[in-house]
Design brief:
653 residues, 5 domains, three-stranded antiparallel beta sheet
Length: 653
């Protein structure tokens, strides 16, 4: 039987059904849809002259196959669409990134931004301090002294072993930044300290150094963004606040010196944040209003999550950071504390400060004679600080040290102990009024006579011979004094703000005390002077507890009557010191009588001291003789002596 031949034009090898269906499926996928091209492909499958597929199968395929095939192919189609959309976004972002980099390079934007950020931070200014005539504004890097930071293990995510390569006795911010790329904990830092400890100055230093491209080679190359939170707290507390890239591009950059002339490239801020090229410094969380802190905390946390490759540093006073509700707390992994200025840091700051002031005062000359004058002034001041415990305690705080050195230059040749009443007056004014106003803090301390209230508290504590009082005693006393002054503020709120903002009072667990006993003594003396209650001091003339208060009182009034009363009660030394404290003109006859008497007493004491020293028994000198000898010899020699050094010095002369 002869087989029929294949029709003309047909292939000698017939495609199998599976192959043809596979071909259809591929064409469906390639078409990208099962609705149009897919149906056409299936129709073509059965529309030819081929009759090998029974009509029943064709009917079934048409009735069921298309339906099932469509369902089978739909997920593939959706997946393709999603992938295409994803790739499209990635390509778009890549184009934006490349475009942004091209624009950034072409316009030199980053370099111009760095210059503007550095310019914002170049001056050394302490907010709230009055600019006095003859005191020059210095450049930050001329007088900056690196702060020492200390670690705390209060955060459960922080392990002391993370600092195994650092000096646990104190380390600098650059030590941490050096390891930030390898150690994520060091990308989210909070720096804690009370007011005046240099937190803002430290951030300005970082921004300036990075802005000038002078950062150590061992630390990552980063682009600094310094944001003062009090400037943006209202914006961040809005219902729909800007995210960090928008805040940088639309608020931060335009507000920099020269920043209004910069055209921020699209996605520049977002790009540096995403790639981990930024160091974002958020200064003054404690200066955000209490009602806004939870919102701002959540905003900061969200920005750190979105841009976790970049470095974030937040500064705050301790209580504002620690007392947040658990649900809204800042989620910073590494808390750090600023350490007190030590003697080396004090000396470096004072010497650098005086060198700059003398150079500016002499038209920029940096000649040996200018250097010598600056060195002498710095040495004189440092000698006084080391000799007076109350001044040494104040000088642990960089802001107060800056006030001390400024005060010293304004009164050349004067000993700070003779002028410390004026120094304390300026410090109280700074802490209770000028600094809160400069930082635009909404505080009741500027809305009432806060210093008078504290003066009344200090006097009561002096009269009861108390240096510390508990919470209930503090509230009871403040409530009474506020009522007496017809102030309407609540005692609890007043106490909280005195502690948190002025820091003239400090809290130790459940007890309160003045930041230093000398503040308590000064405020009590001021209250006595203002109320004309000198008679209160007469019964305490021979009481060592009251002696500093009496001297601080004498510095604020004409102490003629006080000196006469002290002489009548046999307190010649106290009377003479009151004479040294005052700048007022007292009775000339009384002054001459006192000086003659004092010379006789001093001669007898020096004779006794000389005998002690010759017999190497200098430790036998009584405290008053030793203190007088230290003050006198130290002033004449222009330096501070340890006991054995002083003994050798006196024997040589």
């Amino acid at each position: 039987m002869v087989q029929a031949s294949e029709p003309k034009g047909k292939s000698t090898e017939r495609l199998s059904l599976n192959d043809r269906i596979t071909d259809v499926v591929l064409r469906v996928i390639m078409a990208g849809s099962v609705a149009g091209g897919g149906l056409g492909a299936f129709w073509a499958l059965f529309n030819g002259e081929d009759t090998d597929i029974p009509k029943a199968i064709a009917s079934t395929a048409i009735g069921l196959g298309i339906s099932y095939a469509a369902k089978m192919l739909q997920p593939i189609h959706e997946g393709n669409q999603q992938r295409l959309e994803k790739y499209g976004k990635a390509i778009s972002q890549g184009i934006d990134h490349v475009e942004g980099q091209v624009i950034t390079r072409a316009t030199g934007f980053t370099d111009r931004y760095l210059e503007c950020q550095a310019l914002e931070c170049q001056a050394f200014r302490s907010e709230g301090m009055i600019q006095h005539e003859g005191i020059f504004t210095l450049l930050l890097e001329e007088v900056f002294v690196p702060l020492e930071l200390a670690a705390t293990a209060s955060s459960p995510s922080f392990k002391p072993t993370d600092l195994r390569n650092l000096n646990n006795q104190g380390f600098s911010i650059w030590d941490l930044l050096k390891q930030s790329e390898q150690m994520p904990n060091f990308r989210q830092l909070v720096i804690l300290a009370w007011g005046g400890y240099g937190k803002t100055t430290l951030l300005k230093h970082i921004a300036y150094i990075y802005g000038k491209k002078q950062h150590p080679r061992s630390v990552p190359k980063l682009i600094p963004v310094l944001l003062v939170l009090r400037k943006y707290r209202d914006v961040l507390a809005e219902k729909n606040p800007p995210d960090l890239p928008d805040l940088i591009a639309n608020y931060h950059v335009p507000n920099l010196p020269g920043g209004s002339d910069l055209q921020v490239p699209v996605n520049w801020a977002k790009g540096i944040l995403k790639r981990g090229e930024a160091i974002v410094m958020l200064d003054g969380f404690d200066e955000v209003e209490k009602t806004q802190r939870s919102i701002v905390s959540r905003w900061i946390n969200e920005q750190m999550r979105q841009y976790n490759k970049s470095v974030f540093i937040v500064t705050s006073r301790p209580k504002a950071y620690q007392k947040q509700p658990v649900a809204d707390r800042l989620e910073l992994t590494t808390p750090l504390w600023v350490k007190d200025f030590n003697s080396t840091q004090r000396r470096k700051f004072v010497e650098q400060w005086y060198q700059c002031q003398e150079r500016y005062a002499n038209g920029g000359r940096n000649t040996p004679d200018v250097h010598q004058i600056a060195t002498q002034s710095a040495t004189e001041l440092l000698t006084q600080i080391e000799a007076r415990p109350e001044l040494k305690a104040l000088a642990k705080n960089p802001l107060l040290l800056n006030m001390i050195v400024t005060f010293h230059r304004r009164y050349p040749g004067a000993e700070l102990p003779e002028r410390r009443a004026s120094l304390y007056r300026e410090i109280c004014l700074l802490q209770l009024r000028d600094r809160p106003v400069a930082r635009k803090l909404d505080t009741l301390l500027t809305q009432c006579d806060a210093q008078t209230i504290l003066q009344m508290l200090a006097l009561v504590m002096m009269r009861h011979r108390r240096q510390r009082i508990n919470y209930s005693e503090a509230l009871q006393g403040l409530s009474h004094f506020l009522k007496h002054q017809r102030e309407t503020v609540e005692a609890t709120e007043f106490l909280d703000q005195v502690v948190q903002i002025s820091e003239l009072l400090i809290q130790q667990e459940d007890r309160y005390e003045f930041a230093h006993l000398s503040f308590q003594e000064y405020l009590a003396a001021t209250q006595i002077a203002q109320q004309n209650q000198e008679v209160l001091l007469y019964e305490h003339i021979n009481d060592d507890w009251w002696k500093p208060t009496i001297l601080l009182y004498a510095a604020q009034v004409n102490p003629t009557h006080l000196i006469r009363e002290a002489m009548q009660r046999g307190a010649t030394d106290l009377a003479y010191e009151c004479l040294q404290e005052t700048t007022k003109r007292i009775d000339p006859t009384l002054a001459a009588e006192l000086k003659a008497l004092k010379q006789t007493i001093q001669a007898a004491r020096y004779q006794l001291l000389t005998e002690y020293l010759e017999n190497k028994q200098w430790k036998a000198a009584d405290n008053e003789t030793y203190r007088l000898m230290i003050a006198t010899v130290g002033k004449e020699a222009g330096q501070w002596f340890e006991p054995e050094e002083l003994a050798n010095f006196l024997l040589r002369i």
